[in-house]
Amino acid sequence: MLTGKVVTILLQLNQIHKVFNEGTPDEKTALHRIDLHLKPGDFMTVIGSNGAGKSTLMNMISGKLIPDIGEVLVDGTDVTLVKEHKRSRLIGRVFQDPMAGTAPSMTIEENLAIAYSRTKARGLRKGVSKKRRDFFQEKLEMLHLGLENRLSAKVGLLSGGERQALSLLMATFTEPKILLLDEHTAALDPARAELITSLTKEIVETYKLTTLMVTHNMQQALDLGNRLIMMDKGQIIFETNEDQKKDLTVEKLLEEFQKIRGEKMSSDKAVLI
Amino acid sequence: MPTAIFGSIEAGAIYALMALGVYLSFRILDFPDLTVDGSFVTGASVAAVMIVGGYNPFLATMTALLAGFAAGCLTGLLHTKGKINALLSGILMMIALYSINLRIMGKSNVPLLSEETVITKITVFWQGLGIDQAIQSLLGALGMGFIPKTWGILVLMLILAFAVKVLIDLFLKTDIGLAIRATGDNETMIRSFSADTDLLKIAGLGISNALVAFSGALVAQYNGFSDVGMGIGMIIIGLASVIIGEAIFGAKTIVRATLAVIGGAILYRIIVTLALRVEFLETGDMKLITAVIVIGALILPKLIQQQKEKQRKSRRLAEAKKTNAYGKSGDHLAAIKSDS
Questions:
Q1: ipTM for the complex?
Q2: Which one of A86, A110, A170 has the shortest CB-CB distance to B178?
Q3: Where are the transmembrane segments (chain B) (predicted)?
Q4: Which of B43, B67, B182, B199 could form a disulfide with B216 if both were Cys (CB 3.0 to 4.6 A apart)?
């Protein structure tokens, strides 16, 4: 750790390169020497078509995959080879599948207790103490879903939207250094997706979380966050800063995408600028 | 007859420890662990050999428990670090343990009949309390003809089973316990909350097999021998106890489920005892009876559920008919009715 030194870059990806099925006919370069820097408090949205490398990028950060070349630094510490479960002390995650982020046969409070222990060494302390229960109740109120009154209900009984809201809370209330959202509203109906989007905004602002969000929804990518990148074929092909992002619309974004793609067809060099 | 039932409750209480172990692996970790067939005998062998060697039977039983823990951890290692399929890693350990158990005992059977065991010690302790006489005279006064040798084994083994149950209940509510439960429930999730699922599985299987070996050690002392073949089909007996217990006593919460497992283990022993009284059945049919019991316990609850569902449906239809007679609002219900 770089103690005593002000870290201005919280998440740093240097030259991340990943090839799947190397040396076989199925060889595919999933990420092509990606550089990415997030400052504390940055909220970056990531868009791109299927197979653009968005999920692979997320998996590099979470530690599910290890890059062939390049390094991942969190808060100035090299975590490139740190195992997924150890890295998750620093990183909160919400998955696309609402079923993926919670344990269905356990109660709401037990799930929260598991999330609560994310940053700690687990021991033989009681998982749901009176003190923790009060704390959980207070946090659940943030969701405005009335879950604070259903602490001992099994999570498997909740609806997809409720489960995803709970997943979001569980990933965030211990204030991770980095929050990764992997198309976390994609599997929900429009009304529920809207709810989770607004909760995301509220929670990220409350805790000032440094966030990376993958989405298929361009409007959502524009509504949320202060930075935006567009990925295609394992590369970042378009990036906006805070000021540019404010003036961006879906039309402009599509136009941009078309333009870059068109140029890409004629010249690979143009993309790499 | 009452003596046989009494004996099966005694044995059931001891086997309940094994069933609780199977509950941990099978239900909590969602890991079909066949190590049980081997680790049960490992517990019995270690305890028997140590007792014959002159060690304190309590120390021997505790050592047996640790041996079971080690066996379970090895299965966990094979599965998590060796990336071997769950069923296969259990079977491999089971087979390996067969030879190891023979090595421990040096022969295929170690008798304990004339030795001082945990069972004889607690019987002596209990008789010193003088409770037997009190119960006996009470039963005599009530005109019951059945008089067991001692109540000590039954009472103390039941207390032991319940103590272990309470410990498991408490453990599964600690931070580690919650993480172990989540490992069996949703591995992706618990890994994203900084838990090492490999380690949790290894520890969980260790604890599970420690209980199985503990049970094996006590069964050897209860029966008066340890035999290399005494573990065959043990996993099925454990499963039978878990499934029968859950089907009859329910499994809504952990506290309820562990209680159900103890009940299931005792009930299983009673069923087997009764089945063996049927004239044309022999001791050799035991495994077949066990298989039939498990199949029954697996299928019956589903049939009952279906039956209930049917009844509910016909009741709803009858109600729909009634409302339909009174107003137009029942139109859509009438459509449903004609469908069925």
A1: 0.89
A2: A110
A3: 6-26, 58-78, 85-104, 151-172, 199-222, 228-250, 257-276, 288-304
A4: B43
